[in-house]
Amino acid sequence: MSSNNVDIHAALKKYFGFTKFKGLQEGVINSIMDNNDTFVIMPTGGGKSLCYQLPALIKEGTAIVVSPLIALMKNQVDAIRGISDEYGIAHVLNSSLNKTEVSQVKSDIEKGITKLLYVAPESLIREDYIEFLQAQKISFVAIDEAHCISEWGHDFRPEYRNLRAIIQKIDNVPIIGLTATATEKVQEDILKTLGMSNAKTFKASFNRPNLFYDVRPKTANIDGDIIRFIRQYANKSGIIYCLSRKKVEEIAQLLQVNGIRAVPYHAGLDAKTRSKHQDMFLMEDTDVVVATIAFGMGIDKPDVRFVIHHDIPKSLESYYQETGRAGRDGGEGYCLAYYAYKDIEKLEKFLSGKPISEQEIGNALLQEVVGYAETSMSRRKYLLHYFGEEFDDVNGLGADMDDNVRNPKVKHEAQDELKKLLEVVKNTNEKYKSKDVVNTLIGKVNALLKSHKTDDQPFFGCGKEKDNKFWMALIRQALVAGFLKKEIEQYGVVKITDQGLGFIKKPTSFMMTEDHIYDQTDDSSTISNSKASTAVADEVLIKMLKDLQKSVAKKNGVPPYAVFQETSLEDMALKYPITMDELKNIYGVGEGKAQKFGKPFIELIAKYVEENDILRPDDFVIKSTGVNSSLKLYIIQNTDRKLPLEDIAKSKGLTFSELIEEMQRIVYSGTKINIDYCINELLDEDQQEEIFDYFMESKSDRIQDAMDEFDGEYDDDELRLMRIKFISQVAN
């Protein structure tokens, strides 16, 4: 027990008004008061900042706090100023200050008024600041968000790598590193870089029992799903994370149009607007912030009730940090993520431009995210295992707080398969990552396996009766169960544990659940509605609508999907549109479609609603923002002018496949587009006729089915463009 014990309790009451410390705070503070290098791993909401704020207020001199975000500094400085009469008790020193403000900060430090000085790593590097600080009494240096030091972390900043040298230049004072998320690899890296191998380490549990984790497939109805979800949280605070600024703006606008108070937040907005939107959120003048990851690091809002990931993040660290903004007051926190493998492929594309070593790390981190999203075991157990913590998924706190535990998938015996898997890891000398262990099991040759002559081994292909998804799921569950482990140094290489070796000698029962299969359905074709969705379509009505779809198709001599897509029928069975205007608000139905085929559908629905006394959810009509109408017009006008599609895409900042997606939307909602001029350059008359006839006869408009049918004769883009031509001619 530290000699400062009495002091710190009195100081806690005096400055913060608390009578007792939370979790590990007391131990950490004693360690800092005794001038030890200290390393703190404490989840978001665990009271991390008090660990250095209190000693800074008690100790002689000024404590330097290195923090990566201006928003975070502003929040904390305001909070500290609120507990003292001295305005100068806490200051920020960063690029946002003018000359007068900088000299005020310096003067307060010289007078001994300033106890906490928040600096960005970029500012600390400046020679003039280093010289000034060398002449002052510094109590200690705290490095917040210390995972930024590690290139393995999710937020790597090169300036952080040099901190040790800069701190030594200023003064030989104790260093305190703090982070809310860090895997063992990252922890090692932080301690090594800061030269703190003797640091006293304090690690709190990462479990947040009040958070509910839910992962849903990202379907075509995601906008409606999000709006319905948020409406259950009327007037409550929430955050939606998106990967791109463009998506942030779109979603914020969509929410506003649908009567939800929402603001966007991303690095492309000027500082004044960002600050205004942040304050609106804190002061509850808005309910939802739609943001890129630039938001939220410094948001100490205790009552955020939900965090939605519109796009899956790049790492589980990011996911943990971002979901950790919910329920900091111990109240409800719902963490909903939408997942489609297509998003992972996009992130892999982003990585492909980076140096090989970064690509490898990035891909390893991404695969962990895939594992989390696709697993059907307890998500909490999976997440905590990633951070090196064991969790009892039967009696642990919050054990039933996730979608997989609430709706468990059937388990089946996998004793023999697990033995086979462990033997393959052992017999290949523990040198492969998961993917190549799976390739060995299913007998799929690649250059790496060939170079080690693995394909000549008797066990090569010993598991080919199961597919790669099965083996991947088994590897993930074997890792969490402790039969396998991932090597820290050669990241991602799978090794066998003593427990695993024991299992090979004496196998016992092992019950596994297979991963969720999130269908890689392509955008405009049928996408099934999420079972987890808060609203369920009316099955009886769907059947009636499908029968009508078939008879209308027959009468018009077109395939059923050319009348309305299945997603549109599902949406009708959810929202019961009975007027033309309401029908136009159904997913994938535009003015053209409604005029051409809509009448019998709304008549059938109106009759059904009346006969069955159905209460129609008026608020389920999701209004669209109309953002796309100008783009739609632009595409139609320029295809009429026969402008090359590449030029149209470029002028609107779209990729070629994004342009095709937009054109699909236009034709599927009932408007004609003429792209014969560009199809004629790609395909001759016979080829066009062959594909056209295929779509006419086929029961499905899925591109994958067409690819299988033609067995690689045509590429993806050719088939998509022909599908646009087909729908445009036959259905519109």
Would you kindly provide a written description of the structure presented here, covering whatever features stand out?
By secondary structure, the chain is an alpha/beta fold. The chain has 34 helices and 17 strands. It has five domains: 5-203, 3-Layer(aba) Sandwich (Rossmann fold); 211-389, Rossmann fold, CATH 3.40.50.300; 411-513, Winged helix-like DNA-binding domain superfamily/Winged helix DNA-binding domain (Arc Repressor Mutant, subunit A, Orthogonal Bundle), CATH 1.10.10; 539-619, HRDC domain (DNA polymerase, domain 1, Orthogonal Bundle), CATH 1.10.150; 627-731, Orthogonal Bundle (Arc Repressor Mutant, subunit A), CATH 1.10.10.1390. The strands form four sheets. Strands 3-4-2-5-6-1-7 form a seven-stranded parallel beta sheet, sandwiched between helices. It has a six-stranded parallel beta sheet with strand order 8-13-12-9-11-10, sandwiched between helices. Helix 24 (539-556) crosses helix 25 and helix 30 (656-668) packs parallel to helix 34 (716-731). It is globular.
Distance between the termini: 80 Å
DSSP helix count?
34
Question: Averaging pLDDT over every residue, what do you get?
Answer: 86
By DSSP, the count of extended strands is 17
Give the DSSP E fraction (strand runs of 2 or more residues): 5-15%
CATH topology of the largest domain: Rossmann fold
**Number of structurally distinct domains:** 5
Strand order of the largest sheet: 3-4-2-5-6-1-7
Give Rg in angstroms: 29 Å
Most strands sheet = 7 strands, parallel
